[in-house]
Design brief:
Blueprint: E1 2-6, H1 14-29, E2 33-38, H2 43-50, E3 55-57, H3 66-79, E4 83-86, H4 89-101, E5 106-111, H5 120-125, E6 132-135, H6 138-146, E7 154-156, H7 171-178, E8 187-191, H8 200-211, E9 217-221, H9 227-237, E10 243-247, H10 252-255, E11 261-264, H11 273-280, E12 285-288, H12 293-296, E13 304-306, H13 311-323, H14 325-342, H15 345-364
Parallel strand pairs: 1-2, 1-4, 2-3, 4-5, 5-6, 6-7, 8-9, 8-11, 9-10, 11-12, 12-13
Helix pairs in contact: 1-2, 1-15, 3-4, 8-9, 8-13
Length: 365
């Protein structure tokens, strides 16, 4: 079976990591002839090439892109795939319509975000160029149904990580790379793209509240358009000396060894991969009760949840974990067990394989 995964993103984010993990498992673990098509020179293609996964570069500039459409038509005529997976909004129409016109037997549209489908154009687009939609949380499925996608065309496949790839630095090395002194103070950390929906300002306000009576360090790994604004906010709150903006790091997961508590403060998040990575790293987690997060983190059992944007509530949850280390370790152990039993790349590939068979058989009937 020849399978194509199509993406047009220029960054290395959660969805690109999932595409890489899935395509690598399909090719090297399941024996599929798996290819990845993406933006030329993007991190996804470089990572796939390093993993001996065949790649093709296609640039998509617009949601309606005749040049990209023509590239995809030629590509599908040459490779004749059995399955095409569409992983991004921009490539959806040119690649999806080209796949349907080329007679590709099965076309799946993956939806990685929980952004609302707001207008007539988006509603029309989400009726074109695919046979079924794959989502990563029930919240995303709800958004799709509210946008007019029939429930029977939506299929849930949970996000995953590869435990074999989850190597951590030694704690002292991680702290040194983060610029955190070995003085015994706890380290609160997060990893994410610095945009408003990630809620990093809420984290800064919460850290300001607890740092007055619970000294600690705050580490923010990631970059984005909000970074300068967030750095100014940290200065205004007087927490800059104890706050580290590390920037974008390909070794972000390995750096988790230097943290004591992990935070996901998003206002909106379909299913953040960092929840699984922090869980496998053995970190207790505080996360916003937003998007698909509660589907991967059970409040009081595998982590703690707080209302999105509520810095006071986040500060209280952080204080609980910093003061009660045994409770924090209990949550971390239980979340790690959940990740290993439900969210590995083997689970992901098995779910996707079953979906290919189910939908393929359905079309043949």
């Amino acid at each position: 079976m020849r399978v194509l995964h199509i993406d047009s993103g220029k960054f290395w984010r959660g969805s690109q990591k999932e595409i890489w993990l899935l395509s690598r498992e399909q090719r090297h673990g399941r024996g599929m002839d798996c290819w990845v098509v993406g933006r030329p020179h993007a991190p996804l293609l470089r990572r796939c090439q390093d993993s001996a996964i065949p790649t093709v570069g296609v640039t998509v500039r617009l949601e309606v892109d005749p040049i990209a459409f023509a590239h995809y038509l030629r590509l599908f005529a040459r490779l004749r795939p059995s399955v095409v997976n569409l992983h991004c909004s921009r490539a959806h129409l040119p690649a999806g319509l080209a796949a349907k016109l080329s007679g590709v037997p099965l076309v799946l549209l993956w939806r990685w975000l929980d952004n609302p489908i707001r207008n007539v154009w988006q509603r029309w687009k989400y009726r074109q160029g695919y046979d079924a939609v794959v989502t990563v949380s029930q919240r995303v499925a709800q958004v799709l149904q509210e946008g007019g996608v029939p429930a029977d065309r939506i299929h849930l496949v949970p996000i995953a990580i590869d435990p074999k790839e989850h190597a951590l630095y030694e704690r002292a090395d991680a702290k040194a790379k983060l610029g955190i002194p070995e003085d015994g103070l706890p380290v609160i950390g997060t990893v994410g793209f610095l945009v408003p929906r990630k809620g990093m300002d809420t984290l800064l306000h919460a850290f300001h509240k607890i740092s007055r009576h619970l000294p600690a360090f705050l580490v923010i790994i990631g970059d984005g358009p909000e970074r300068a604004k967030l750095e100014r906010l940290a200065a205004q709150l007087g927490i800059s000396p104890m706050t580290k903006f590390v920037g974008y790091r390909m070794d972000a997961t390995a750096l988790m060894a230097g943290l004591d508590v992990f935070v996901v403060p998003s206002f909106r998040d379909a299913a953040p991969i960092v929840l699984l990575e922090a869980g496998l790293a053995g970190l207790p987690i505080v996360a916003a009760k937003a998007g698909g997060i509660p589907e991967y983190l059970r409040d009081g059992e595998t982590g703690l949840l707080f209302p999105p944007g509520d810095a006071e509530a986040l500060a209280e949850k952080l204080a609980t974990l910093l003061k009660d280390r045994e409770f924090a370790h209990q949550l971390a152990r239980q979340h790690q067990t959940f990740v290993l039993s439900h969210c590995t790349v083997d689970h992901l590939a098995s779910k996707v394989d079953a979906l290919y068979r189910q939908l393929g058989n359905g079309k043949r009937r």
